[in-house]
Amino acid sequence: MSARGDRFRHIVETLGRHGLGFVLAWLGLDRLHLPGRPPAQLPGTAGVPLPVRVRLALEELGTVYIKFGQIVSTRTDVLPPEYATELAKLQDASPAVPADEVRAVVAEELGPRAEQLLASLQDVPLATGSIGQVHEATVGKTAEGGIGVVVKVRRPGVVAQVNDDLEVMAELAKRAEQASATVAGFHVAALVDEFSQTMRAELDYMQEARNAEQFAANFAGDSRVHIPRVFWETTTSRVLTLERVHGIKISDIDALHGAGIDTAVLAVRACNVLLKMVFEDGFFHADPHPGNFFVEPDGRLGIIDFGMVGQINDATRWNLVRLLMGLVDEDAGRLTTAIVQLCGANDAAGYSGLQAAVGRLLGRYTGRPLAQVPTVPVLAELAGLLRAHRLRLPREAALMLKMLVMADGLGKRLDPGFELTTVLTPFTRRLILASVSPEALAGRLKKLGWEALRFGTEAPELARRLLEVLERGGLDVHFRADELDRLMDRAERTGNRIVAGVITAALIGAIGELVSVQPDRWRNWPKALFTAGLGGVGALGGYLAVTARRRRPG
Fold first, then answer.
1. What's the pTM?
2. Which of 93, 141, 514, 551 has the most neighbouring CB atoms within 10 Å?
3. d(CA 42, CA 46)
4. What is the rounded distance in angstroms from the CA atom of residue 214 to the CA atom of residue 211?
């Protein structure tokens, strides 16, 4: 039997032993003719809750499946709470790679550059994981003898193992969705695809090094945050060398109190750092568990482990603004539209049930300031609504949701009275104000201008085609299906652009009100922008009028 066949057999046997034989039908593996006797179910399995059996099976299946369970446990928008809670307990018990194998990898990757690193490399790892492990060493020469570093070394053979398992997992997800509408409703294939991208990115230590440098650049002006330096001369895709971060783990509450650190202040400070990553930088640490944060002797907040990151693009940021404005204004319609668009769906009108549920959710917090709305319970309920209506957040938005929940947990661990919303509120206000800033409006006006220009070049051709179609049959017009589809698609785009022109005019009218609210910020903004905008709207209107006269019969 091939290696893939052996892996399928192992999966069948593992699921059977943990009383998950019914899953084989979902996966289409019940029709495979595998040699040997059916696997015996472990004694006492029948009385174990199903989520626990799933966790135990994933642990037995190994690295890739454990990682998948850990990541999926954060996807409360697709996974029921009881499964999310149980899968969050997954632990990777990978054994340490022997020191001589680690040294062989370092020597092979770095060649002559490995000499000093190998001379100081400690045999006992600081940490061991499924993809690699971390060792302490020194580089360079100083009065103290060298710079302390940590060397992260990828496990030998792990890339081939991960790629093989990812291919099998993708095949299983495809089979499961074809066999079961219930499984398809969980978007398993899409989750596996997202997970594959994340896993393959974590295998490349060069990418993690680039992530670290990006964070360092984003916090270059903040002396309270320490992102470890990357030593590029001893870094490759298999070996990552970073400056060693020393300090008290942020999870060690007793040690923090013993050092005289105010943990309530630290909670606000740490969460401010995380929220800045999301709302200001658009580039954030997607695994902010307490083990990745240290309070250094000089008071700086040291951050490590940059393998998993998220990025927020402009479209997601704008949908986030609309979502926040819907919350602030207690507008169920606006909030529903933002949620649906954030999930990549096109028509919010088809989600009247969702809007009603969102309205009930908002009703429970009517009249409360945003700072008094509990973040995690609201996010958890919204995630439940997404599951109920078969909506799925895109990967980056889901990572952001996970990060916010973990930030809230971190804050509460440091200060039981902490509420994330009190820290979140100033960021949401700044984000909303930034969406109507001169720079943001200029960007939208530029985009609308290009839309108007494209409309101007396409309008004559569209008008000509419409007239030709009408002239062929008078009022009794016969359309071919493919021609009608293309025509309606172009007409819809044109209608959108006309609406865009109207919005542009309304936007320019609203600028006067914004100037009165923020006069200092707008005082020096070029008047030419508004003149050009008004001129563009006028020119567009004139162009349409001339075109209409040219095409009018007689």
1. 0.72
2. 514
3. 9
4. 5
